[in-house]
Every structure is written in structure tokens, then in C-alpha cells.
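WARN  no MSA supplied for this record, continuing single-sequence
INFO  ligand: protoporphyrin IX containing FE
INFO  echoing inputs
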Amino acid sequence: MNEPDRDLEDPVEEHRALHETESRIAIAGHPLHAMLVAFPIALTMSVLGADLLFWWTADTFWARVAGWASFGAFLMGVIAGITGTIELLLVRGIRNRSASWTHFILAVMLLSLMGMNWAWRIGDHVEAVLPLGLILSLTAAVLTAITGWHGGKLVFDYQIGTRQPK
Ligand code: HEM
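INFO  complex generated
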């Protein structure tokens, strides 16, 4: 059995340029994407909350809240997504890590769901809630949790978006 004469190389570890993962869409080094994602996350959870409250109380106020919150979630999600996508395409170390693309795919599925949840409510926001509105809200909330958790993984596990030591 021949022993390899040197350790296996990790192309990401070996290639210095791939360490460039620092955010460029940032204010004083703080990524805009990380600042913006709080809005779609909170608003998506709010749509689910409002739908459940409408189901429980039958108060149409909650159906109206859900309609507006679903619009806000989609709008802010798209804006956050644009900052993330520019980052992904612009920064070599982000672009070269497959985890970034996994996050992108999750996010695009989530944004489609957010858009569907809003569009479904246009016209009659009361009739739209049960059952399909609630099902869309629940699915969007679960996918938001997965996408948000995965976004955190990019930063805390892979240091994506952070400045690497020279
Ligand atoms: C549509 C395309 C998207 C792309 C390409 C993208 C890309 C990225 C990238 C590159 C990062 C690393 C930090 C940075 O460089 O800013 C990140 C972090 C993150 N993303 Fe996204 N993202 C997208 C959409 C979303 C959406 C819709 C959500 C909402 C659920 C989300 C949630 C997060 C979270 C929570 C973090 C961690 C932020 C932190 O803790 O600092 N992303 N994303």
C-alpha cells in the first residue's frame, strides 16, 4: 500500500483568492443583506400569526393585516434577495462556495411562495385565508426558518460575508 507523499489538498483552502468572502454590499463592513433579511422573516411570521388569529376570531381585521403583511414580506424579501444576489455574483469567495448556491435556491423558492401568498389575497383578502392562504403561510414560515437558518450557517460556519484574516 503506497502512502501519499503529501496531504490531500482542499482547493478552497489552498487557493488564496477563494478566501475573499468579505461583503461588498455593506455599510462600514456591515452587510446590507444581513440587515434587510430581518424584515421578510418577521413579516412572513406575522402573516401566519394573522391568519391563525383570523381563523380563531373570524375578525376580518386579521385577514386585512395578513394581506398587507404578505405584501411587505414579498417586497422586502425581493429587496433583500437583490442585495444577496449582487453579493453572490460579485464576490469570488462567495460565488465559489456551493453552500451560497444552496442558499440562493432555497431563497428563490421562498420568494416565489411569498409572491404567491400575496397574489392569492389580492381582490378578496377574507375569502383567501381559509384554507389555501393559511397553507401558503405555514409553508412559507417553515421555508423561511430553513432559509434563515441556512443563511446563518453561511456566516457562522463558512465565514461567508466576513473579512478573512490576511
Ligand atoms: C435571493 C437570493 C439570496 C441570496 C443570493 C442570498 C445570499 C446570502 C449571502 C451571500 C449571505 C452571507 C452574508 C452576506 O454576504 O451578506 C446570506 C446570509 C443570510 N441570508 Fe441570504 N440570500 C438570499 C435571500 C435570502 C432570503 C429571502 C432570506 C430570508 C429568509 C435570507 C436569509 C439570510 C440570513 C438570515 C443570513 C445570515 C445573516 C447574518 O446572520 O449575518 N437570504 N445570504
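The pocket of protoporphyrin IX containing FE is lined by residues 23, 31, 33-34, 37, 40-41, 77, 80-81, 84-85, 87-88, 94, 100, 103-104, 107-108, 110-111, 144, 147-148, 151-152, 154-155, 160-161 (CB under 6 Å).
INFO  checksum written, moving to next record
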